[in-house]
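BUG-155 | component: ligand-complex export | severity: low

The export step for FE2/S2 (inorganic) cluster jobs runs without errors, but we want the raw record kept on the ticket for reference. Input record follows.
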Amino acid sequence: MNQPENLSSNPSLPTSPVSRRDFLDWVIKGGLFATLAGMLFPALAYLWPVTRRGPAGGLVEVGTVDEIHVWGSKKVVLGGSALIVVRTPAEFKAFSAICTHLGCIVYWDSAKQLIACPCHAGFFGLDGRVVSGPPPRPLATHPVSVVDGKIFVKP
Ligand code: FES
């Protein structure tokens, strides 16, 4: 009559250094660790100091301070809208680059220190108000923040 062999005592079979119980313990502990890390990482990222990743409030980086010289400008597209960022000796300002008359793209006239529209000679001041020409309304302004040499604008 054949007797079942005792497999664990069979020297020809490879023995595993990790038991099934130990393996399952590692799987469960790994799953718990992954779950906790997945919950803690977003909370810690939220609490991390704001200056490390730029200002809060939906502002978007549009460049560095070095890219725009004083009394210079840069055009950017944010959220599908054209904006113009102007640097004065004291600050950065951002405006919609769409003229309020018939929608032409404005540019910065550094000689006049005004925002100019090439279509019908409309001019806007550094507060966005119409200085001269046919535009019926001021240019929309956008909040600007400078953090660690980077320029952020709210779309
Ligand atoms: S479209 Fe700008 S002044 Fe007419």
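Assignee comment: Attached the raw record above. Helices lie at 20-47.
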